[in-house]
Design goal:
Elements lengths: L2 E8 L4 E8 L4 E5 L5 H8 L5 E6 L5 H4 L2 H8 L3 E3 L10 H7 L12 E2 L3 E5 L2 E7 L8 E5 L4 E5 L2 E2 L2 E2 L9 H12 L9 E4 L5 E2 H7 L5
Parallel strand pairs: 3-4, 4-5, 5-6, 10-13
Antiparallel strand pairs: 1-2, 2-3, 7-8, 8-9, 9-10, 11-12, 13-14
């Protein structure tokens, strides 16, 4: 079954939002609904499918700032980890501090835990990868060999761990425990929260933070 993955770069921090759907399907899943609802709606309007579900790898403002606007526009639910619920309290202030406007606190319809998530013909494995935030998650789509890593793993780097509630040691352990155990890493494309995509095999061999 063919799948389509669209990368929607948005906001001043150039955050990567991803929309995955089955080829020819009318619905899909939106991952990390960014900070600019206007940018995202323009991008989604060019795709012949609509979000049936929004999910976030973590609760930072640049990954969920557009959620509430998009939820109302597309009438779709939103899910994230309950361990990042505290970040919702500072969402508006943090977004404004970084010049991204007054982000609205999203309604969380689904608290995500490690499990298999199914929607719109897409099966995603939810992986708990705390470290960048307490409730950090990654999403593994085995059918397309795609790993949505949020701000846990980047091309040649890893997520920041100098925020309140972050832990460098926990982040490294999460990557090794949940990501590096996936089989055939050279065939797995990593879609990070910022920057270019990479492969899991390349990061295992060359990422300087993980050697």
């Amino acid at each position: 079954m063919p799948y389509r993955i669209h990368t929607l770069v948005n906001g001043s921090l150039e955050q990567n939002c991803y929309f995955i759907h089955v080829e020819g399907a009318s619905e899909g899943i939106l991952i990390d609904p960014g900070s600019s609802p206007e940018d995202l709606r323009r991008g989604l309007d060019k795709i012949p499918a609509r979000p049936a579900l929004m999910i976030a790898t973590h609760g930072h403002f640049d990954h969920i700032g557009a959620v509430q606007d998009l939820a109302e526009a597309y009438h779709c639910p939103f899910g994230m980890s309950r361990l990042d619920e505290g970040l919702l309290d500072t969402l508006a202030d943090t977004s404004a501090f970084y010049g991204l406007g007054d982000a609205r606190r999203p309604t969380v319809d689904l608290w995500l835990e490690p499990s298999l998530l199914e929607k719109a013909g897409i099966h995603l494995r939810v992986l708990a990868t705390p470290g960048h935030t307490p409730g950090g998650l990654c999403f593994w789509h085995e059918a397309s060999r795609s790993l949505f890593s949020g701000d846990t793993l980047f091309a040649g780097s890893i997520g920041r761990s100098d925020f309140e509630g972050s832990s460098h040691e926990q982040l490294i352990a999460s990557i090794r425990r949940e990501l590096f155990v996936l089989q055939d890493p050279d065939t797995i494309k990593v879609y990070p929260g910022h920057g270019e995509s990479t492969t899991l095999g390349k990061e295992k061999r060359h990422n300087p933070f993980l050697q």
